[in-house]
Specification:
This protein has four helices and eleven strands; from the N terminus they run βββββααβββαβαββ. The protein is α+β, with helices and mostly antiparallel strands and 220 residues long. The chain has one domain: Aminopeptidase (3-Layer(aba) Sandwich). A hairpin with a 4-residue loop joins β3 and β4. The longest helix is centred in the C-terminal third of the chain and has 15 residues. About 12% of the residues have low confidence. It binds coenzyme A.
């Protein structure tokens, strides 16, 4: 079995097509080519972003299940089982879509994947992102590093647009995160969900990828 590919999110295109470095020094620390070193902690920690494997699914299921059960970040109302998460993972990986984890000191700190925005064929160059960071690791740059890597990986498979469908409870952090990575707001769908006893709005954001609409799609 080959080792999962490590992702090096050194550069992603700007929505304008201009290259930008995502490995630069930021408020949260210094991102090196091979990992993310975060300072300001008792000791520096090292993160790795790589392709997810089935062995990561128990941790991913726990992260997602916590979010489903305690928030409105997901419109699912029952945390999916491990078997169901493995099934979803297989569908995405068999379709060639990126599914990434960020490992901090041996622990899955968060995960992100890009999947079809819609199933109809004409949407084939558009992906929707999903990103979840374990509660203990939120607010320290994990989401940002993961999303940058996911954008780069989605460009590698020549997707042209990424859509974020952001449910209400995650919105402050999620809207900020996506805005920092070049997403622009598209609109709000009002009261399209009902969970935990209240109606939920959804914020839509989108980001151009690679050459975007300047050339026809290559994905079949
Ligand atoms: C949304 C989420 C993925 C962000 O990941 P994170 O690792 O916590 O975010 P980061 O530390 O990388 O921060 C990214 C940006 O968001 C900002 N941010 C983080 N948490 C925030 C909060 N609670 N409120 C406002 N802004 C916040 C950060 O300051 C940073 O912006 P900056 O670079 O301008 O300072 C994470 O909070 C999460 O998993 N939430 C629950 C699930 C969810 O909502 N997923 C999104 C589904 S679309």
């Amino acid at each position: 079995m080959t080792a999962p590919r490590r992702i090096v999110p050194t550069a992603v295109s700007e929505p304008t097509g201009r290259p930008s470095r995502v490995g630069r020094t930021g408020r949260h620390g210094v991102r090196t080519l091979r990992n993310v070193r975060i300072f300001g902690y008792p000791s520096p920690v090292t993160d790795t972003i790589r392709e997810a494997t089935e062995a990561d699914l128990p941790a991913i299921t726990a992260i997602y299940g916590e979010a489903v059960g305690t928030s409105t970040a997901s419109f699912e109302t029952e945390p999916p089982t491990l078997d169901e998460m493995i099934r979803r993972f297989s569908v995405l990986r068999n379709g060639g879509f990126p599914y990434l984890v960020q490992i901090r000191d041996g622990t899955v700190a968060g995960y992100a994947y890009a999947g079809p925005y819609h199933q109809r064929a004409a949407y084939r160059s558009t992906v929707e992102d999903s990103i979840y960071v374990a509660r203990a690791f939120r607010g320290c740059g994990v989401g940002r590093a993961l999303l940058a890597a996911l954008i780069a990986e989605s460009e590698r498979i020549d997707c042209r647009t990424m859509v974020a469908v952001i449910a209400e409870s995650g919105s402050a952090a999620s809207v900020r995160l996506h805005a920092r990575l070049g997403f622009t707001p598209v609109g709000i769908l009002a009261a399209v969900g009902y969970k935990h006893g209240r109606w939920l709005d959804v914020t839509l954001m989108q980001r151009a990828l690679g050459p975007a609409r300047s050339a026809p799609p290559t994905r079949v």
